[in-house]
């Protein structure tokens, strides 16, 4: 991994800088030189050496022949693009001026393609973003060829996320090809045998990485065989599992996992639900995020506001016309969408309300404890942070878990327990700087829960796969690998499901995934909602594809983040006013315009906030999920 390094810190697939205000002609890419081969036969033009080892390399023996085969913009063809009339015109009219990072998050993929294909950047990164421009422009076959060229030539390339964790571009290129081939079976192409393993790749130190590469091969396939048929699980034996109670996990002889509730398969279709009033914030103590909504009755009618008094502003005038916009309540709206679970991040404070949620709407709860994240439950000072080696902190956190479990374990609405919330990222705790004591403590907690509650599995909520190896070594008593993961509109990639399968062997729950319904620039509300809906659709389809019977077979479901926008989340005062829905990006990431907008993640909005916590606008994502989750 020391062979290649990235000169710029980059986000997961997107740059920090949005496209400038100028707008080049918006025409599709018309490749001057698409290449002579639909699937390039690399063995005609070079030699694969040491496949499946750390010494892997592809040596080109016929550079001219390979250049003709791959086409313009794809390594090693770096010449024909300069003969392309479109490139010449754009260059002549100075549309390609500026940093290549400024071209990533734009609708003008034609310009982005030519800029990235001719820029001076790490060659693996350059080739990946060239492929991304082709993909986003709809040229799927050239994009697949370009992604595969990354795997062949630059599998060792590493970039960095905004959070300074490694981003392995070769592995993501495999994920991209798998995804594109699956959603475009008409191309009749699939990738077989490709695998990149990064030993020691679950920390943030790339100097200890050992990269083992087998590029596999792109092959022609009948469209009906691009995606393997779904496995009939009735033909497979149950060979193991976790738990023996009413909620349990079973493992089949093909390695697939399934969650059973009262003996029946259960897909976790979950949303994070915190419908708090606009204007309140934990930063000044006016809001306790995880509990206040369970008791709020601002209109003093004896009903909890969000669950029962929320209404749909069908007229869009930010008023309630009671005759045509009666209260319907979030619980009913969630049931209509197909939700079967909500995630409670820290305890269940209103058991009566949650009992009604289950009895009247059929929705269960994934009940959690922050386990010292944000110092909640540990008794630590914020700036010192929770110390997982501190006996007093451990005692406080264990007592917090005991209170949660003993209070709720016999309730019919409890589905699973979730420990933590991406504690391994180290916000107000030392789980990132000293992860082993943290994961050992998680295991101690899980073991105790099992001793008193055999009916509900225990999940950890990790941040992506950071420290997955250390988690696997120290958390044998945890049943489910949960992960808050935001990777892009293609979902999570084969690499995530394979990593957990190969390293930990436990089933996976995506404990958070989401996309903002806002983009910076001159975009319509309709366009922004479409981008959010398409992103979230891709995420669920990946989750569902990898459930028992298909894909890697270890997915249990996911937690959509989130139900409604929360206006306090962009940061503490004075930068953030909780009474205003902020429109500045908090950090770069794989989102529609390259930025995360923390206050725009809901599949329903709170309109202009004046009738919060009652008013709801249903975004397009709501209706997309209503179709997906009610199949």
Defining traits:
single chain, 631 residues, alpha/beta, TIM Barrel, four-stranded antiparallel beta sheet, 25 strands, 17% strand, disordered N terminus
What's this entry about, in short?
By secondary structure, this protein is α/β, with parallel strands linked by helices. 29% of the residues lie in helices and 17% in strands. It has 16 helices and 25 strands.
Number of helices: 16
Unreliable spans: 1-22
Q: Characterize the largest beta sheet: strand count, sense, and whether it forms a barrel.
A: 8 strands, parallel, barrel
| Spatial separation of the terminal alpha carbons | 45 Å
Estimate the global geometry from the Cα principal axes: globular
Query: What is the CATH class name of the largest domain?
Result: Alpha Beta
Please identify, by name, the CATH architecture of the largest domain. Answer: Alpha-Beta Barrel
Total count of domains: 2
Structural class by secondary-structure content: alpha/beta
> What is the radius of gyration?
25 Å
CATH level 3 topology of the largest domain:
TIM Barrel
């Amino acid at each position: 991994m020391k062979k290649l390094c990235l000169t710029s810190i980059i986000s997961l697939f997107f740059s920090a800088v949005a496209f400038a205000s100028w707008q080049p002609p918006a025409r599709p890419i018309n490749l001057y030189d698409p290449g002579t081969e639909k699937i390039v036969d690399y063995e005609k033009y070079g030699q694969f050496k040491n496949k499946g080892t750390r010494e892997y390399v592809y040596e080109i023996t016929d550079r001219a022949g390979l250049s003709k085969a791959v086409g313009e913009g794809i390594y090693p063809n770096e010449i024909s693009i300069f003969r392309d009339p479109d490139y010449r015109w754009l260059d002549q009219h100075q549309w390609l001026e500026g940093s290549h990072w400024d071209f990533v998050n734009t609708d003008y993929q034609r310009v982005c393609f030519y800029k990235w294909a001719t820029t001076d950047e790490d060659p693996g990164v350059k080739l990946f973003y060239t492929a991304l421009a082709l993909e986003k422009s709809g040229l799927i076959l050239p994009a697949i060829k370009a992604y595969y060229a990354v795997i062949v030539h630059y599998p060792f390339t590493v970039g960095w996320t905004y959070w300074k964790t490694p981003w392995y571009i070769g592995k993501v290129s495999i994920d991209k090809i798998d995804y594109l081939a699956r959603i475009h079976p008409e191309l009749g192409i699939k990738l077989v045998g490709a695998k990149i393993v990064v030993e020691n790749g679950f920390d943030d130190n790339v100097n200890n990485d050992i990269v083992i590469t087998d590029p596999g091969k792109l092959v022609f396939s009948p469209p009906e065989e691009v995606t393997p048929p779904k496995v009939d699980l009735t033909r497979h034996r149950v060979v193991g599992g976790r738990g023996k109670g009413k909620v349990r996990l079973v493992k089949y002889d093909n390695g697939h996992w399934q969650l059973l509730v009262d003996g029946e398969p259960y897909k976790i279709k979950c949303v994070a639900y915190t419908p708090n009033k606009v204007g309140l914030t934990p930063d000044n103590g006016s809001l306790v995020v995880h509990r206040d909504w369970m008791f709020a009755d601002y209109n003093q009618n004896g009903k909890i506001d969000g669950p029962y008094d929320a209404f749909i502003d069908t007229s869009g005038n930010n008023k309630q016309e009671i005759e045509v916009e009666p209260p319907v309540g979030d619980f009913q709206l969630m049931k209509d969408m197909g939700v079967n679970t909500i995630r409670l991040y820290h305890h269940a404070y209103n058991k009566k309300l949650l009992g009604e949620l289950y009895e009247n709407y059929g929705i269960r709860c994934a009940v959690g404890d922050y386990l010292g994240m944000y110092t909640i439950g540990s008794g630590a000072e914020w700036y010192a942070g929770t110390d997982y080696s501190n006996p007093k902190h451990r005692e406080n956190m264990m007592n917090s878990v005991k209170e949660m479990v003993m209070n709720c374990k016999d309730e019919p609405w409890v589905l699973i327990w979730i420990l933590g919330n991406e504690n391994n990222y180290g916000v107000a705790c030392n789980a990132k700087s000293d992860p082993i004591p943290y994961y050992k403590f998680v295991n101690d907690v899980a073991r105790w829960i099992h001793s008193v509650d055999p009916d509900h599995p225990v999940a950890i909520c990790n941040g992506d796969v950071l420290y997955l190896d250390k988690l696997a070594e120290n958390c044998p008593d945890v049943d489910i690998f949960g992960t808050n993961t935001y990777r892009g509109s293609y979902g999570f990639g084969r690499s995530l499901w394979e990593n957990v399968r190969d390293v930990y062997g436990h089933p996976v729950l995506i404990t958070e995934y989401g996309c903002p319904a806002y983009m910076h620039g001159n975009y319509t509300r309709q366009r922004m909602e479409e981008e959010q809906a398409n992103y979230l659709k891709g995420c669920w389809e990946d989750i569902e594809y990898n459930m028992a019977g298909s894909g890697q077979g270890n997915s249990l479901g996911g937690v959509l983040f989130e139900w409604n926008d929360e206006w306090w989340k962009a940061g503490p005062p004075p930068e953030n006013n909780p009474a205003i829905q902020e429109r500045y990006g908090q950090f770069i990431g794989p989102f529609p315009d390259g930025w995360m907008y923390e206050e725009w993640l809901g599949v329903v909005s709170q309109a202009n906030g004046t009738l919060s916590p009652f008013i709801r606008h249903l975004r397009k994502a709501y209706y997309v999920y209503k179709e997906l989750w009610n199949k």
